[in-house]
Amino acid sequence: IEKKIFLKIINSNGSYSKYEILGNGKVKRTLISRGANAGEVSQSTFYYEDRPGASIRTTIAHDANGAKTAYCHSKSGRLLSVENFLKKDGKDVTYRVKRFHYSPKDSKHPGYLISSTLEDSKGRIYSCQSYRYNDNGSVRAKVLYGDLTGKGEKHFKIGGNGLPENGKAIESYKVGYSYYKNPKGLLNLVKEE
After folding, report:
1. Is residue 166 very low, low, confident or very high in pLDDT (cuts 50, 70, 90)?
2. Taken in order 165, 168, 174, 177, is the CA torsion positive or negative?
3. Nearest residue to 182 (alpha-carbon basis) of 143, 130, 136
4. 142 SS3 class
5. Alpha carbons 16 and 89: distance in angstroms, whole number
6. pLDDT per residue as tens digits for the range 69-104
7. What stretch of H or E contains 173?
8. Closest C-alpha among 75, 99, 71 to residue 85
9. DSSP string, 71-134
10. 172: which DSSP letter?
11. For residues 100 and 85, is the Cβ–Cβ distance under 8 A?
12. How far, in Å, CA of 176 to CA of 137, rounded?
């Protein structure tokens, strides 16, 4: 028998949010009230795929409209991808995937997010948001790559370093960040380049 716990949060107007929590602490379902005395409706449901020995774990979420989203993460909980689905002929079909690329263990900032990419159902990458860090590990630059003007490359490839491969003229937009030395880490300036 699966142990379930319900957590109910009541708002000042009498409406509420209710969470069905499994014995392992994971949320199975969220419900919201239609009003103070109008009953409740399911807002989202969650299914967890934790296969023994698997290096990737998946959380499947269905929203109130039945739209499916799959969140894939490593054993340590690091988010690897978010996959969105559409219904086609009664089946869930992938229409886009957002992937996250991290720096290797032997880098200056191991495990930091290097980039996130957005791809279609065929694996073609349409955009890439990259991150560069200063010596303290704070973001010093974000660069958005893709067809920003409607005149550039429609899709491109990402190299093993999580960044767009050279060879194509990929449009980009950069935002730089600088920080005060004292107090350390306090944002000083944001500059568009």
Report:
1. low
2. positive
3. 136
4. strand
5. 35
6. 999 998 888 999 999 999 899 899 999 999 999 998
7. strand 171-179
8. 71
9. EEEETT--EEEEEEEEEETTEEEEEEEEEEEE--TTSSSTT-EEEEEEEETT--EEEEEEEEE-
10. E
11. no
12. 14
Question: What tokens were used for 74?
Answer: 């490593």
* Strand, helix or coil for residue 168: coil
AA letter at 16? Y
The residue with tokens 């694996």 is 123
Tokens at 72, concatenated: 């894939």
Most confident residue range from 13-22, 42-51, 104-113: 104-113
Strand-pair category, 27-33 with 40-49: antiparallel
One-letter-per-residue 3-state SS of 12-75 = CCCCEEEEEEECCCCEEEEEEECCCCCCEEEEEEEEEECCCCCCEEEEEEEECCCCEEEEEEEC
Give me 1's structure tokens.
């028998």
